[in-house]
Amino acid sequence: DIQMTQSPSSLSASVGDRVTITCQASQDISNYLNWYQQKPGKAPKLLIYDASNLETGVPSRFSGRGSGTDFTFTISSLQPEDIATYYCQQYNNLPLTFGGGTKVEI
Amino acid sequence: EVQLVESGGGLIQPGGSLRLSCAASGFTVSSNYMSWVRQAPGKGLEWVSIIYTGGNTYHADSVKGRFTLSRDNSKNTLYLQMNSLRAEDTAVYYCARDLPGCWGCFDYWGQGTLVTVSS
Lengths: 106, 119
Known about the structure:
The complex is a heterodimer of chains A (106) and B (119). Chain A is mainly β and 106 residues long.
Protein backbone atom coordinates (compact mmCIF):
# COMPACT_ATOMS: atom_id res chain seq x y z
CA ASP A 1 0.00 0.00 0.00
CA ILE A 2 1.13 3.56 -0.67
CA GLN A 3 1.60 5.56 2.52
CA MET A 4 0.83 9.28 2.42
CA THR A 5 2.64 11.42 4.97
CA GLN A 6 1.24 14.88 5.52
CA SER A 7 2.85 17.69 7.47
CA PRO A 8 2.31 19.53 9.62
CA SER A 9 -0.55 17.78 11.43
CA SER A 10 -1.82 21.16 12.54
CA LEU A 11 -0.96 24.81 12.09
CA SER A 12 -2.11 28.18 13.27
CA ALA A 13 -1.94 31.19 11.01
CA SER A 14 -3.41 34.65 10.67
CA VAL A 15 -5.90 35.91 8.14
CA GLY A 16 -4.02 36.87 5.01
CA ASP A 17 -1.11 34.53 5.67
CA ARG A 18 0.29 32.15 3.09
CA VAL A 19 -0.20 28.57 4.26
CA THR A 20 1.63 25.57 2.86
CA ILE A 21 1.00 21.89 3.54
CA THR A 22 3.21 19.11 2.28
CA CYS A 23 2.36 15.54 1.38
CA GLN A 24 4.89 12.81 0.66
CA ALA A 25 4.07 9.49 -0.96
CA SER A 26 5.96 6.31 -0.08
CA GLN A 27 6.46 5.63 -3.79
CA ASP A 28 6.16 7.43 -7.11
CA ILE A 29 2.51 8.33 -7.78
CA SER A 30 3.15 10.60 -10.79
CA ASN A 31 0.55 13.39 -10.47
CA TYR A 32 -2.25 11.18 -9.13
CA LEU A 33 -2.83 13.29 -6.06
CA ASN A 34 -5.91 15.10 -4.75
CA TRP A 35 -6.47 17.61 -1.98
CA TYR A 36 -9.69 17.81 0.05
CA GLN A 37 -11.04 20.25 2.59
CA GLN A 38 -13.21 19.00 5.43
CA LYS A 39 -15.07 21.24 7.83
CA PRO A 40 -16.37 19.85 11.16
CA GLY A 41 -19.43 17.66 10.74
CA LYS A 42 -19.31 17.92 6.95
CA ALA A 43 -18.23 15.69 4.11
CA PRO A 44 -14.90 16.36 2.45
CA LYS A 45 -14.81 18.68 -0.54
CA LEU A 46 -12.51 18.19 -3.51
CA LEU A 47 -10.28 21.23 -4.05
CA ILE A 48 -7.43 20.05 -6.25
CA TYR A 49 -7.13 16.99 -8.51
CA ASP A 50 -4.26 15.69 -10.62
CA ALA A 51 -1.93 17.45 -8.16
CA SER A 52 -2.52 20.93 -9.57
CA ASN A 53 -5.93 21.22 -11.21
CA LEU A 54 -8.41 23.42 -9.42
CA GLU A 55 -11.85 21.87 -9.13
CA THR A 56 -14.67 23.95 -10.62
CA GLY A 57 -15.87 26.67 -8.29
CA VAL A 58 -12.90 26.52 -5.94
CA PRO A 59 -11.30 29.91 -5.20
CA SER A 60 -7.99 30.59 -6.91
CA ARG A 61 -6.22 31.20 -3.59
CA PHE A 62 -5.97 27.42 -3.37
CA SER A 63 -3.24 25.74 -5.41
CA GLY A 64 -1.26 22.53 -5.59
CA ARG A 65 1.93 21.39 -7.18
CA GLY A 66 4.30 18.47 -7.29
CA SER A 67 4.82 15.11 -8.91
CA GLY A 68 6.44 11.82 -8.09
CA THR A 69 6.58 11.61 -4.31
CA ASP A 70 6.54 15.22 -3.09
CA PHE A 71 3.56 17.53 -3.22
CA THR A 72 2.54 20.86 -1.76
CA PHE A 73 -0.79 22.54 -1.19
CA THR A 74 -0.95 26.28 -0.70
CA ILE A 75 -3.51 28.81 0.44
CA SER A 76 -2.12 32.10 -0.82
CA SER A 77 -4.08 34.31 1.56
CA LEU A 78 -5.82 32.53 4.42
CA GLN A 79 -9.47 33.48 4.93
CA PRO A 80 -11.66 32.78 7.99
CA GLU A 81 -13.77 30.33 5.99
CA ASP A 82 -10.66 28.24 5.25
CA ILE A 83 -10.59 26.91 8.79
CA ALA A 84 -10.79 23.16 8.21
CA THR A 85 -8.81 19.97 8.00
CA TYR A 86 -7.07 19.29 4.71
CA TYR A 87 -6.26 15.84 3.36
CA CYS A 88 -4.14 14.64 0.48
CA GLN A 89 -5.11 11.41 -1.28
CA GLN A 90 -3.35 9.29 -3.87
CA TYR A 91 -5.12 7.46 -6.66
CA ASN A 92 -2.16 5.95 -8.44
CA ASN A 93 -3.43 2.53 -7.44
CA LEU A 94 -5.64 0.64 -5.02
CA PRO A 95 -6.06 0.86 -2.15
CA LEU A 96 -6.71 4.56 -2.38
CA THR A 97 -5.00 6.16 0.58
CA PHE A 98 -5.24 9.46 2.40
CA GLY A 99 -2.76 11.48 4.36
CA GLY A 100 -3.36 11.92 8.07
CA GLY A 101 -4.75 15.43 7.66
CA THR A 102 -3.67 18.95 8.52
CA LYS A 103 -5.88 21.00 10.81
CA VAL A 104 -5.69 24.69 9.94
CA GLU A 105 -6.65 27.17 12.63
CA ILE A 106 -6.55 30.91 12.99
CA GLU B 1 -28.19 18.75 -9.37
CA VAL B 2 -26.03 15.87 -8.23
CA GLN B 3 -26.99 14.52 -4.82
CA LEU B 4 -26.01 11.50 -2.75
CA VAL B 5 -28.04 10.48 0.29
CA GLU B 6 -26.82 7.71 2.56
CA SER B 7 -29.00 5.77 4.96
CA GLY B 8 -28.95 2.58 7.01
CA GLY B 9 -26.49 3.43 9.73
CA GLY B 10 -27.13 2.78 13.39
CA LEU B 11 -26.04 0.90 16.47
CA ILE B 12 -25.17 -2.75 15.90
CA GLN B 13 -23.59 -5.41 18.09
CA PRO B 14 -20.20 -6.90 17.21
CA GLY B 15 -20.63 -9.73 14.75
CA GLY B 16 -23.81 -8.25 13.36
CA SER B 17 -24.71 -7.10 9.86
CA LEU B 18 -25.89 -3.85 8.39
CA ARG B 19 -26.68 -2.63 4.89
CA LEU B 20 -25.98 0.95 3.95
CA SER B 21 -27.73 2.60 1.02
CA CYS B 22 -26.64 5.54 -1.09
CA ALA B 23 -29.42 6.98 -3.23
CA ALA B 24 -28.15 9.08 -6.11
CA SER B 25 -29.88 11.77 -8.14
CA GLY B 26 -28.74 14.04 -10.93
CA PHE B 27 -26.55 11.39 -12.54
CA THR B 28 -26.50 7.66 -13.25
CA VAL B 29 -24.72 5.50 -10.68
CA SER B 30 -23.93 2.76 -13.20
CA SER B 31 -22.13 5.25 -15.45
CA ASN B 32 -19.68 6.31 -12.76
CA TYR B 33 -17.14 4.74 -10.49
CA MET B 34 -18.49 4.94 -6.95
CA SER B 35 -16.74 4.47 -3.63
CA TRP B 36 -17.38 4.27 0.08
CA VAL B 37 -15.05 6.15 2.39
CA ARG B 38 -15.26 6.02 6.17
CA GLN B 39 -14.07 8.17 9.04
CA ALA B 40 -13.77 6.86 12.57
CA PRO B 41 -14.70 9.37 15.28
CA GLY B 42 -11.99 12.04 15.50
CA LYS B 43 -9.84 10.25 12.92
CA GLY B 44 -8.87 10.65 9.28
CA LEU B 45 -10.37 9.34 6.09
CA GLU B 46 -10.15 5.69 5.03
CA TRP B 47 -11.18 4.38 1.63
CA VAL B 48 -13.32 1.25 1.94
CA SER B 49 -14.61 0.00 -1.40
CA ILE B 50 -15.07 0.90 -5.06
CA ILE B 51 -17.38 -0.33 -7.80
CA TYR B 52 -16.44 0.25 -11.40
CA THR B 53 -18.89 0.92 -14.21
CA GLY B 54 -18.49 -2.67 -15.40
CA GLY B 55 -19.50 -3.93 -11.97
CA ASN B 56 -16.12 -5.07 -10.65
CA THR B 57 -15.60 -4.25 -7.00
CA TYR B 58 -12.52 -3.88 -4.85
CA HIS B 59 -12.16 -3.49 -1.10
CA ALA B 60 -9.64 -2.40 1.47
CA ASP B 61 -7.90 -5.30 3.19
CA SER B 62 -9.53 -4.25 6.47
CA VAL B 63 -13.00 -5.15 5.14
CA LYS B 64 -12.24 -7.74 2.47
CA GLY B 65 -14.39 -10.83 2.88
CA ARG B 66 -16.81 -9.01 5.19
CA PHE B 67 -18.15 -6.13 3.09
CA THR B 68 -19.90 -6.38 -0.29
CA LEU B 69 -20.58 -3.51 -2.65
CA SER B 70 -23.44 -3.60 -5.13
CA ARG B 71 -25.81 -1.31 -7.00
CA ASP B 72 -29.40 -1.37 -8.18
CA ASN B 73 -29.52 0.41 -11.51
CA SER B 74 -33.33 0.62 -11.48
CA LYS B 75 -33.20 2.52 -8.19
CA ASN B 76 -29.97 4.39 -9.01
CA THR B 77 -28.73 3.29 -5.61
CA LEU B 78 -25.47 1.95 -4.23
CA TYR B 79 -25.35 -0.54 -1.36
CA LEU B 80 -22.70 -1.57 1.13
CA GLN B 81 -23.48 -4.85 2.86
CA MET B 82 -21.42 -5.10 6.03
CA ASN B 83 -21.14 -8.45 7.82
CA SER B 84 -19.17 -9.64 10.83
CA LEU B 85 -18.94 -6.10 12.09
CA ARG B 86 -16.21 -5.19 14.55
CA ALA B 87 -15.72 -2.30 16.95
CA GLU B 88 -13.08 -0.88 14.61
CA ASP B 89 -15.72 -0.53 11.87
CA THR B 90 -17.35 2.25 13.91
CA ALA B 91 -17.28 5.31 11.66
CA VAL B 92 -19.21 7.73 9.55
CA TYR B 93 -19.60 6.11 6.14
CA TYR B 94 -19.68 8.33 3.07
CA CYS B 95 -20.51 7.34 -0.46
CA ALA B 96 -18.69 9.33 -3.09
CA ARG B 97 -18.76 9.73 -6.84
CA ASP B 98 -15.67 9.78 -8.99
CA LEU B 99 -15.10 12.93 -11.01
CA PRO B 100 -15.77 11.86 -14.61
CA GLY B 101 -12.45 11.31 -16.32
CA CYS B 102 -10.55 11.19 -13.05
CA TRP B 103 -11.09 7.88 -11.25
CA GLY B 104 -10.24 8.10 -7.60
CA CYS B 105 -11.11 11.81 -7.50
CA PHE B 106 -14.25 12.20 -5.41
CA ASP B 107 -16.19 15.22 -6.62
CA TYR B 108 -19.50 14.56 -4.84
CA TRP B 109 -20.02 13.10 -1.40
CA GLY B 110 -23.08 12.19 0.62
CA GLN B 111 -23.71 13.62 4.05
CA GLY B 112 -22.56 10.40 5.71
CA THR B 113 -24.26 7.82 7.91
CA LEU B 114 -22.92 6.81 11.32
CA VAL B 115 -22.31 3.16 12.09
CA THR B 116 -21.61 2.30 15.72
CA VAL B 117 -20.51 -1.22 16.55
CA SER B 118 -20.83 -1.81 20.25
CA SER B 119 -22.38 -4.20 22.73
